[in-house]
Design a protein that fits this description.
mainly alpha, 74% helix, Phage tail protein
Length: 27
């Protein structure tokens, strides 16, 4: 849930967001 909120909060194209998204997908 937390990761999803972070990703949603940062709609901008940021490498950190992409990394978080990858982690969430792998989880």
């Amino acid at each position: 849930s937390q990761y999803r909120t972070e990703f949603s909060g940062g709609n901008e194209t940021r490498p950190r967001n992409i990394a978080f998204n990858y982690i969430v997908r792998a989880a």
